[in-house]
């Protein structure tokens, strides 16, 4: 029932997702193998298509021994079922590393390949393309024809530099698909996000391109163990840190790619891919295939590189080759050289300088080239191409005689310093004291400066400036005034009190006089009244 439910919910066409690395050693193939296993664990049907023309170690990581490849299906020697391998996790694997050596040249081969890929489409929801870790024309075609690409990088400056070069080539081709960056072999989450931010910042600054964050895979001791056991890490230790990162990446793919975009299908993708490849002969049993060689029959003999070079140079001097065809040949030759030897020819550097000298580039184009070189230098060596002193000297040289711009530049630098370190560049007090020690600093200048300080104080605090002595004296005067008021109040109270005493004495005398008069009169109640009073 579960498989039936998944089949009913699957999109009409599977999703094609390309994984690119641009440099060996970033762990791209390991990410592909383990993400595929994680997606299967989430109930999705996933197939890895191995087009890595290098070691093709996806099979080693998954413990598989492929006996047949997709090119044998193309020749009619095997069926798609015979070349399709399955892991213990039910991840499908198809080896197609040599298929891009040439495109089908006959209708029968095209029909055969289309039928095989159409059959394969019905079995899976996602196809993960594991590409070669080399910046070649073939890799660029694999990426630009896919709707979704994951660029696997690491914190290694060389890996970031190569990834940026790949990104620049894709930007030149106006890649319209979704490109996300996965940071592999990260120490922790902050280190992964820091690597992504540095890479994205350079891409946005130099290419005006926003790169999405795809996720990260943390360093995990279970990963090398899984490789040694030829199994996925999610199967070996599903709760390990690396497994949790891979499961999160799988969930993001299912949610954002599987849930929000329509799949293109493997047939359409591969047909477009092969149609974009220069036509070359495919080894097979088809008699109607067009030959690769454009030489005369008499010339179809083995020649040395020196002889081929001599003939090519002779043809160029005699103008037997048109410029577009020659440019295509040079590009294909350099690409083949890189695929064969893993590096650019030694003559590339002087040719690069010659290219800059001969091309009449406009100023914006030259600025773009310089900015690209500075960005590559910063990513590779983790430091700017020019030191702070060198940059300052260059700025000062550019501002000779432009006083206002020079002043604005200094103000901007001071503002940036203040914002970063929350303090001023210069100690104003120390600068002022040092200035006062100069011989040309006069008393008159001091008085003027003091008056400016007083005016500034009044503007800031809304009152005239007073020194500590002046404040103490004003406070003493105010206290004396208060004491004088208190003294007067006390004197008034004493006067009122004395007046009360006088009134009381007067009443007492009157009362005694009355009592004495009553006593002398012989009244019977006189003594009692006297006592009561």
From TrEMBL:
It comes from the Bacteria. SUPFAM superfamilies: P-loop containing nucleoside triphosphate hydrolases. Residues 385-416 form a coiled coil. The keyword Protease does not apply. Keywords: ATP-binding, Coiled coil, Nucleotide-binding. InterPro entries: AAA+_ATPase (IPR003593), CobQ/CobB/MinD/ParA_Nub-bd_dom (IPR002586), P-loop_NTPase (IPR027417), ParA/MinD_ATPase (IPR050625). Residues 13-176 form the AAA+ ATPase domain. The keyword Coiled coil applies. This is AAA family ATPase. The lineage of its organism: Bacteria, Pseudomonadati, Pseudomonadota, Gammaproteobacteria, Methylococcales.
